[in-house]
Write a structure and sequence with these properties.
Layout lengths: L4 H14 L9 E8 L10 E2 L2 E2 L17 E4 L9 H10 L10 E9 L8 E7 L1
Antiparallel strand pairs: 1-5, 2-3, 4-6, 5-6
Length: about 130
């Protein structure tokens, strides 16, 4: 609970409208990439560019061992504030690389011509 019936109905109507018509791709530009260099011992074995998985684990019943935690947010930024928003993120003092378990950070900017223009910061941690 904690929300109004109007908010609930609005969510249901918007969800139904999304389902109308064929899927539409969403394109993003990657900005402000930060990452750490992984240890060679921590890299998975690759076969033709794909991670090698033991057949006993990939049986459709067992879950794969976890590799990372991904945190995503989404900010809807009016186009007239987009430049200031991105500059503020770019100028901030980041201490992410000092955090234990930090793997990568990237800011994604949605294609400005798309409906629902948004910015998505993504952080990946061990």
């Amino acid at each position: 609970g904690g929300t109004s019936i109007t908010a609930f109905v609005s969510t249901m109507v918007n969800s139904a409208l999304v389902l109308r018509g064929p899927p539409r791709p969403a394109f993003y530009d990657g900005l402000l990439l930060q990452s750490t260099k992984p240890d060679a011992d921590d890299l998975p074995t690759l076969i033709d560019g794909w991670r090698s998985v033991d057949d006993n684990v990939a049986d459709g019943v067992q879950t794969f061992p976890e590799e990372c935690f991904v945190a995503c947010n989404q900010f809807f930024v009016p186009s007239d504030n987009a430049v200031a928003f991105e500059q503020r993120w770019a100028r901030r003092e980041s201490k992410l690389k000092e955090c234990e378990g930090f793997v990568a950070f990237c800011m994604l900017r949605r294609d400005g011509t798309a409906k629902g223009h948004g910015t998505v910061p993504i952080a990946v941690e061990e």
